Amino acid sequence: MTGDTYAHDPSYIQEGSGTRWVFSTGQGIQVHWSADGKAWNLGIQVFASEPAWWAQQVPNHAKLDVWAPDIFYYNGKYYLYYSISSFGSQNSAIGLVTATSITKGDWVDQGMVLKSTTSSSYNAIDPNLFADKNGNLYMSFGSWWNGIYVTAIDKSTMKPTGNSYRIATKSGGIEGSSVVYNSSTGYYYLFVSIGTCCQGVNSTYKIAVGRSTSVTGPYLDKSGVDMKNGGGTVMDSGNGAWKGPGGQDIAGTNIIIRHAYSVAENGAAHMLISDLQWDSSGWPYYS
């Protein structure tokens, strides 16, 4: 890829048959765009100023610092979920902004989706929207503490309804979940980032995966270990050029985007995009 590819926690979508968009962590939600998926340009951030509810619900967050956005297209509209927090804290919230067109950028704040405090079992960051095999909507979320959770999403409000279910834990860190259903294999796949991020070339992030026949688990790795009990098969642990891959997002069932830290640039975070493939046993891989 060429152009501006600096990004952290990227989420990818193609608008119709045209422009590819990537939303990522940064001031007001960072935006990149590309006409061909190869040459990338920095766009205009989603939020020029903060909605009033941010400071009310998460008063200790850094000004306009928005984490791990997730873009989802449903019923003729684009839903962009995101999180605000402060590093290492459970005082967090997931918010939602919508648009009829990413190109137009007619974003409308839809308020808070979910909140956590120091008394919560989970941390309300890293949202990921997905549909089950019947078209019902769900959101996975969570970071460290008691791990990754999943909750049903109401199709009218596009916000959680009912209980949240824990589906993965990992000592030493787990976050950045992405769930996708592959109709060819009949499984739901839970992709997570394990280890620690945000330390440049010293980051220990790795991308791991498990699968389940049910949205709420159990998600088992290749060895049959439940991800709720620390399981997870590592797909990518980095290489000599790229350290700490993670913050991944799955587009459809055939594209994976993630960030990694460039050794050549002393730990600068770049987005990397690959074709996601599936082996004969129904497990994902990429090169």
TrEMBL record:
Alphabetized SUPFAM superfamilies for the sequence: Arabinanase/levansucrase/invertase
Keyword field: Glycosidase, Hydrolase
Pfam families reported in the protein's UniProt record: Glyco_hydro_43 (PF04616)
Keyword Cytoplasm set for record: no
Pathway it works in: Glycan metabolism; L-arabinan degradation
Gene3D superfamilies xrefs: Glycosyl hydrolase domain, family 43 (2.115.10.20)
Keyword Signal set for record: no
Family to which the UniProt record says this protein belongs: Belongs to the glycosyl hydrolase 43 family.
Stated name of the protein: Family 43 glycosylhydrolase
Species of the source: Paenibacillus terricola
High-level lineage: Bacteria, Bacillati, Bacillota, Bacilli, Bacillales
